[in-house]
Amino acid sequence: MDRFNAMRVFTRIVELGGFARAADSLQLPRASVTILIKQLEAYLGVQLLHRTTRQVSPTLDGVAYYQRCVRLLADLEETEAVFSQDRRNPRGTLRVDMPAGVGRLILMPALPEFSARYPLIELEIGLNDRPVDLIREGVDCALRGGPVLDDRLVARPLAQMPQVTCASPGYLRQYGIPRSLEDLQGHRMVEYFSSVSGKRYGLEFVQDGLLREVELPRQVSVNSADGYLAACEAGYGLVQAPYYHAAHSLQAGALQEVLQAYAPPPLPLTALYPPQRQLSTRVRAFVDWLVELFARQGHCPARP
């Protein structure tokens, strides 16, 4: 039995919550994964995993063993990288998750530069507005907008994205163009809500250096960034979005910015990764490239 390979398989089973998902993730036959875990448990003399028809979870011994495996595997990868070409040319699969708008409008156009610099890294990119559980789902790195809510993760700030308040021309013809926050009486908004936490978001404005939160009547609530802007374009009310996401609609005339003197606070964009992956050369290369990318003036569009 290759003990390091068995550790790698075991940690992935714990992170993904199942033998089949771990086998698919590591591109191994499912039978081989099952045999490896049986051999590992026999070698250690303890049961590492609870198995049911619906899920797999670590035992108390399994949790302790998982924590040690993670540290050992990270140290092994870093040690091998020091004495190999992998330090300069990292290789392997890197699993990344990010909001669909960030991926489609910012990352994807720039990504060929990263691939040219690191041709041996294979990227698996998830694009969605659902916050994934990086540890449970085996994701190496994620980009997230807004405050960091999971203190288990390492956070690397990338950018402060300017936001704008918008409405459709048709909506503004019907309800009027607000010139001040007092003018918002009688207006409506599109509400954004989290599909995970259920939290609902109103409008935020900065007035005289202070943050003011405004709640308006709504007829439509959505849980995706693209749907949020689409409802705004359809005339359902005011929205607030990062400028990069609304820029095309603003330039095309499908949306119109209002209340520029009371701009919403900028939205922080952060790279997150589990602490056990902070030594990975692949993660380090990708996050360092992200920091470099967002540091370039004008890459994340600013409001004119």
TrEMBL record:
Q: Which domain of life is it from?
A: Bacteria
Q: Which PROSITE patterns match?
A: HTH_LYSR
Matching entries from InterPro entries are given as: LysR-type_TF_proteobact-type (IPR058163), LysR_HTH_N (IPR000847), LysR_subst-bd (IPR005119), WH-like_DNA-bd_sf (IPR036388), WH_DNA-bd_sf (IPR036390)
UniProt keyword terms in alphabetical order: DNA-binding, Transcription, Transcription regulation
Coiled-coil region list: none
Cytoplasm as a keyword of this entry, yes or no, is no
Q: Which Gene3D superfamilies match?
A: 3.40.190.290, Winged helix-like DNA-binding domain superfamily/Winged helix DNA-binding domain
Q: Name one Pfam family in it.
A: LysR_substrate
User: Does the UniProt entry include the keyword Hydrolase?
Assistant: no
Limits of the HTH lysR-type domain: 1-59
The family assignment reads: Belongs to the LysR transcriptional regulatory family.
Protein name, please?
A: LysR family transcriptional regulator
* Organism lineage: Bacteria, Pseudomonadati, Pseudomonadota, Gammaproteobacteria, Pseudomonadales
